[in-house]
Amino acid sequence: MTEETKVDEIVQETAPETSEELEETTDDIEPAEEVQFSDEQKSKINEIIKENANNKNQEIVALQDSIKDKEFQIQSLNNLLIQKELLSQNLDITDTQLEFVKQMVQNFSYTNIEEIIKSVKELIGKKLKLLMNKISTLIKQKKILILEIF
User: Fold this and answer.
1) CB atoms within 10 A of CB 86
2) Per-residue three-class SS string for the chain
3) Fewer beta carbons below 10 Å: N end or C end of the chain?
4) How much is the pTM?
5) Dihedral of the CA atoms 87, 93, 95, 100 (nearest 10)?
6) Cα-Cα-Cα-Cα dihedral of 104, 94, 96, 72, to 10°?
7) Where are the compositionally biased (Acidic residues) regions (predicted)?
8) Measured between alpha carbons, how far is 97 from 130 in angstroms, rounded to an integer?
């Protein structure tokens, strides 16, 4: 067991858990004698503190990296889900439109969900309108061909 671990255990065992306990413990504290540390002891204490701080910083950086990895994984899964959903709808969506939807999901928050739904509906509406125009044009062309034949 390292000195650092020993100190951490002692602090955890003796630290008051509530503010009331803290007040109770500070009321009965008698003024202590001034404690003197040798330069070697001060150096060792500072070394332990620095090492502990470095370890905590490394843990924080590792957790931040892990969070970034998880966010990337979530975004990738969201993108795959969007693609799967759009493919299952048999929508003929361009890469640009797909990228737009991906960006909307990437910037997702519960406050802008209505905006996302509205934008996706508009996107689908535009595609539907284009499709209806194509169908209308094809029907007109077919009528013209039929009239020409007769």
Assistant:
1) 18
2) CCHHHHHHHHHHHHCCCCHHHHHHHHHCCCCCCCCCCCHHHHHHHHHHHHHHHHHHHHHHHHHHHHHHHHHHHHHHHHHHHHHHHHHHCCCCCCHHHHHHHHHHHHCCCHHHHHHHHHHHHHHHHHHHHHHHHHHHHHHHHHHHHHHHHC
3) C
4) 0.35
5) -100
6) 50
7) 18-37
8) 14
Task: Produce one character per residue of 43-82: b if its CB has 16 or more CB atoms within 10 Å, e if not.
Answer: eeeeeeeeeeeeeeeeeeeeeeeeeeeeeeeeeeeebeeb
CB 63 within 8 A of CB 86: no
Tens-level pLDDT at each residue, the chain (150 residues): 565 566 566 656 655 566 666 566 555 556 666 778 888 888 888 888 888 888 888 888 888 888 888 888 877 777 777 777 766 666 666 777 777 777 766 666 555 666 766 777 777 777 778 888 888 787 777 766 666 665
Distances (CA, A) of 131 to 19, 124, 135, 143: 69, 10, 6, 18
Q: How far is the C-alpha of 78 from the C-alpha of 85, rounded, in Å?
A: 10
